[in-house]
Structure formats: C-alpha cells, structure tokens
C-alpha cells in the first residue's frame, strides 16, 4: 500500500487565489498493490484543469488517509462567504452503503463528509451551494442491458431555469435563513450497490463529467443530466453494453448553480431586496396551522367556555414555556412544558399544543401518560390522577377533535405509519422519503430518519417501495 501524503491546508490555497469564484477540493487515491487504480490521477488532473478554466481555486490531494481528510474538513467553517460554490471531488474505491475507502485502508461514510459542509456545522458558508462529485463503486453489482423499442427520439437535455438567481455568499443581505441540512448536491457515478468503472483515461463517468463541465454553460443539475445522456448514447455501442453505469444525483440545492462564468446571463438579477411575501419578524413561517397560533387560540376558547381557568405561563432559560391551568369540572391542575425555542411565541404555542392534545385524548377516554408521582422531566407534561367522572361527556368540550384512526394492532400497521409514530414518540423530525433513480420500471426509495439513510427493496410500485424503506428503517431503529 502506498504511503499516505498529508494534505496541505485550505488556507494556503485561499491566500494564493484571493479572487477566485469558488473552491474545489479534489481527493484521489490510487492505493497501490492488488487494489491499485491507475486512472484516479488522470481524473484529478482532468478535474483540476476544468475548475481552473471555471476560475475556481483547487486543492488537489492524492493518497489521503481518513485522519488527514478529517483534518482537512475541519477547515470548512473558516471559508470566506463570498464564494459562489464549494465542490468536493472524490475518485477512488468505495463500497456499499455510500462508504469511501481511504488510502490507509480506513473507511469514511459519505454522510460524514457532507456533514462537515452543512449550515449547522459551518454556518459561515451555509448559504453557499455545496457540490459533491463521487466516482467510486457503491457495491459489486453490474447492470445487464435491456433491449427496448427505440421510441421518443434521442435523449434531450433539460433547459435551465431562467428564473434562478445567485447569491454571492449572502453579501446582498445581512442574514439569510436556510434549512440546517440544505443547499447541497451529491452526484454519484452509479446507483447504490453497483460498480463504477475506469478506463485508460480514468473514470468513465468522471471523464464525461469533466467534458460537460468545461463546455456547458447550463446549471450543474442540467450538466449532470447531460452526462447521463452522454453515457446513454455511449452504451448503444455493443462494446459498452456490458459496462453500463447509471449516475445518481441527490439534490437539495436551494437555487440553480452555474459553474461556468459565462452562465451569468442565465442566472437573472441578484436579489436586491427582501421578497414582499416574507412573513414579518417574530411570526412562525412553517406551513402548518398548528404553528401559527392555532393551539393558543384553542386554549383561549376553552378558557372563555369556562372549561379551564387560572391559566398561567412562565419561561425558563432561553424560552422554555411552562403552562399551567385548572380544569373547572374537577379542579385538577395541569402543567405542560414546551421544548426550547428562540422566541416566546413559539414556546407558548408548543406548550399550548401539548395541553390541547392531551385534553382531547382525555375527552375521548385515552390515557396519554401515567399519573405523576414525581417532578416531571424536561419537555414532559403531567396531570393529577384522573377521576372517573372526567372521562365521560367531554368529547366536544374542546371543539371538534382531530380525526383519529381506528385502533390497529401494531403488527398490522402500515410500516410508514409505524415509522412516523416512532419519530413522534422520540421527538425526531418526520421521515423523508426520496426516490432513487433506477434503470428499469422498478422503484427504490431511501428514507432519512434523524440523519441516517435506509434503503428499501426494488418494487414496481412507488408506494410499496416506500413501505419497504420504512420497514428497513424500523428493523434498524427498534
């Protein structure tokens, strides 16, 4: 195995290239010995030439160990926010589960690399698009060609979105709000569980990508679509039909990204002022009625109807709302705590939501939690021991309750429903389902739960594919 070469610093590259439009980090490993890859160095040189032509600074490092790459990634939060994009290129061995193999034999999950660039880890560059180009195996399977009628003409490349705008690192506004894990695009040379191939001139996909990036003025998403089109035409040659790859793209970009400097004409005018439809400061903007004062309103309605009384609120630390009230029918005192928020209104709405939902459940005769025996833990609520008389005749006391499904045995529940309940029970974000591109009429779905990805089986129906992914996630989480 070849010796690992410690990478230089990003700071050195920035000092030498103060006026560049962006930064590209290129990692190539050749390994040596029986596992040697002869084409990775050509991939690195090719991509470096492409980025140089696009006026993007490059840091190309060969034969990098896992520890060296982690040290390199720790510099990401220090990048200047004036860049238009940040790219990460990898050419080397990989394995199933989106794992990259380093020069020293260690392994790094792709998510670990992506995490280093996310807004919650590197807020200074949170509004800058991050692009990942990965040319590595993702398993040991290979495609078998399928003969289909030639209909519909040639594969066409989608035209760019002309309404897109660019933001040079949030220099036009003092602050901008972005999702904690957004503004990234990950481009793989093949779909999950399949091999990536290289020829005499380097990686098959990387070569096609470099050519498109150097010549095309379109957005990066259209560039990647064009690469798939190029490979599709190439596979019509009988000599290539046994070596098919189907590149996969996972995009969470917040706007079109153009790497070519002449693509500026397609970007539109930069944003000069705040859009007119932005909610005013201090209000909640999630598109859900329960996050816009809905539950505070319902609590006030209960108070006006003399169903509850003595409503008080207090705040602990940085806006944890503690809401207490007395139920008029039996004089029981209730207490509910919100999660921690950045403002009082959000905290009060959260506590009110817990209170109203608990009263709804009680009115329907459902026990939400055991009687309190000691002080409640943080973010939990408690009630005094229930009285039998309180469980009857209160179904309409709080207004029309939310629709509730009929009781279903947990073993017979839909996997998606069970996974949703698991996330709610453990106060996790709701699962996110994404369709992975496949080369036939079948679907594969990836579900993300609390930063982890779970892949389902290939199914002919998208709904069944989602259920399969949810079942895989439950098997790992429970």
Automatic annotation (TrEMBL):
Domain Caspase family p20 as annotated: residue spans: 20-141
Family assignment from sequence similarity: Belongs to the peptidase C14A family.
Stretches the record annotates as Disordered: 265-288, 361-416
Record's protein name: Caspase-2
Pfam hit, one: dsrm
InterPro entries: Caspase-like_dom_sf, Caspase-related_regulators, dsRBD_dom, Pept_C14_caspase, Pept_C14_p20, Pept_C14A
GO BP terms, alphabetized: proteolysis
Alphabetically ordered keywords of this record: RNA-binding
Residue spans of biased composition, Pro residues class: 399-408
Region forming the signal peptide: none
DRBM domain boundaries: 414-478
